[in-house]
Amino acid sequence: MGSKPAFDELWGTRRGKKPRPGFEPLARWLTETQHSELVRRQQAAEVAFRTLGITFNVYGEEEAAERIIPFDIVPRVFTAGEWKSLSEGLEQRVRAINAFIGDIYGQRRIIADGVVPADIILANPQFALQMAGAEPPHGIYAHICGIDLVRTDADQFFVLEDNCRTPSGVSYMLENREAMLRLCPELFDINKVEPVDTYPDLLRDTLYSVAPQGVRNPVCVLLTPGHFNSAFYEHSFLADNMGIELVEGSDLEVDDDFVWMRTIDGRVRVDVIYRRVDDAFLDPLLFRRDSLLGVPGLMAAYLAGNVTLVNAPGTGIADDKAIYSYMPDIVRYYSGEEARLPNVETWRCREPQALKYVLDHLDQLVVKLVDGSGGYGMLVGPTASASEIERFRAALKAEPHRYIAQPTLALSTVPTLTEDGLAPRHVDFRPFVLTGANGVSIVPGGLTRVALSKGSLVVNSSQGGGTKDSFILAEREDEG
């Protein structure tokens, strides 16, 4: 990372001297609010989160204790101009992702034209052969995407990864905003902040819009693996706020290629399933035979066009980090334009020259599994021990195709509350992009994740990260 300090989103490069234009109200609020008062409000938010049950499980821990994701009281702020630029780039990328997924399960033009190697797609564990030749209702595969962004300076954002399988975290975006409105109402008086509370309505409208052809009053349900799942709070939160039923696999059955929900008043036909169950567990007749989470015959109903699955099976291939490395080419191929949101520079370790470079620079790079998530299976070279580096070196030599590597970026920072006062901490950002039959919708907000340890670049909640509210400022009259 070098000696150059990270870009701070409040102070820019002149930390503590003069805030960036448009950020003066936040800087003044931080200066005038006592540290003890910030701590009091933050603790009040965390008590409320625990009372509401806004928790997650960390798998593999003996305690299996449900934890709240730490919440930071200092918001992260985007100007209207920054958000406009990000929104345009997000829409372009998600449209390309949908075109790509439709192509690889259809004509596979991108393979025939040599843009993406066939084996990275066809031999990918996330490639669902069952989807070959199938077309979902309205031709949409990735209805809900969470695109992880990082920032390195005033004008430069990069896409860190794409989440198109079952992206999570939107409940934290909404609950963080509720906490800020309740505990720091004065911030909304001094800043004109765009609302995020329309997300459940937009999501419901998206689900209704992609119902099978001819269905006028669709019945939508949210399919959850159950209350032991780490994101169960979010599942119940979204179902409740959309006014749809939260169901488990045992609540549904397939009869004559239609899906039915069992109720105390009899069976009700289901038209749209927002599924938060991974592909492998969706249907024991076509995927994992030992799955108790899915619905036997669900894929037959889906392939017959009688039910919509959101997101479609097989979309997880777009999450793969080897596929990610081709995204600038994918965007260009389907849109005819250069990607407005660039990727982080990426070395594909499956390529001999790239592997050689990575092995020679392991102490400087971030190495990731192509199918990894949650901060697991990752090496952060500059902070890794010698034994960790050697362990990754052996793994790379044994299975280079399973890894990609990226430079260690100087991620931007945002002032964050610590025991010793405010201090800069690194952040990333996950906005949520909805694609329905009526087009693309993006709520002006997202999930800001923050690395709470000094100097840490790992923001994942499973690795000790926290969250912040994300303020999108409304456009001022002089900006119009």
TrEMBL record:
It holds the Pfam family CP_ATPgrasp_2. Residues 1-23 are annotated as: Disordered. It comes from the Bacteria. InterPro entries: ATP-dep_Glu-Cys_Ligase-2 (IPR051680), CP_ATPgrasp_2 (IPR025841), UCP005522 (IPR016450). Residues 75-451 form the Circularly permuted ATP-grasp type domain. This is Circularly permuted type 2 ATP-grasp protein.
